[in-house]
Write a structure and sequence with these properties.
Blueprint: H1 2-6, H2 42-51, E1 55-60, H3 68-75, E2 82-83, E3 93-94, E4 99-105, H4 115-128, E5 132-139, H5 156-165
Parallel strand pairs: 1-4, 4-5
Antiparallel strand pairs: 2-3
């Protein structure tokens, strides 16, 4: 956030810890012109997400993938999808095209630590939703599951600051 702000970008943080978003029920009310039947924070967050460019997903790694709150949030993208009469690549709907990036921390730092999470990010956000990937910063070795965070003992904070500062350094 600091790097992006220092580069002159406006940044807004939306916490899924402070804003409960429940997963999709599959009721299809949204497909028939009705609002989502769930009354939670998604309805307030969705317009912010639709305006965000880039959308930066920042999360800890839980059991080799995204936390359940982010998965629930992604499921609710269903109600902001637009019909697509000619869907590319097997998609059934379309979304406004935006950029996105992934920032993720983990205790472990094995060659496979982020493999499932990166695949999920690419499959959902890049391949299916159709966002343009602006990059990833995968911060492994940030502590252990039985102790406190140790990210301050790594170079990840400096590297992600530069990532934020340079996310649009190419002029886009």
């Amino acid at each position: 956030m600091s790097g992006a702000r220092d580069a002159g970008h406006q940044v807004e943080v939306v916490s899924l810890i402070k804003n409960e978003v429940r997963g999709c029920l599959g009721c299809n009310a949204c497909r028939y012109g009705k609002p989502c039947v769930q009354k939670d924070a998604f309805n307030d967050i969705a317009p912010k997400v639709l305006a965000a460019d880039p959308l930066v997903i920042a999360a800890p790694l839980y059991y080799w993938t995204f936390p359940a709150r982010i998965k629930a949030f992604v499921e609710r993208y269903y109600c902001i999808a637009q019909p697509d009469p000619n869907p590319p690549h097997g998609r059934y709907e379309k979304y406004d095209v935006h950029d996105c990036a992934l920032l993720m921390t983990a205790a472990g730092d094995y060659f496979w630590t982020f493999e499932l999470a990166v695949n999920y990010y690419r499959q959902v956000f890049i391949n299916y939703i159709g966002y343009h990937d602006r990059g990833m910063h995968l911060a492994g070795g940030c502590g252990d599951t039985d102790g406190g965070p140790q990210i301050d003992k790594t170079d990840h904070l400096e590297r992600v600051y530069e990532f934020g500062r340079n996310v649009y350094a190419d002029g886009e």
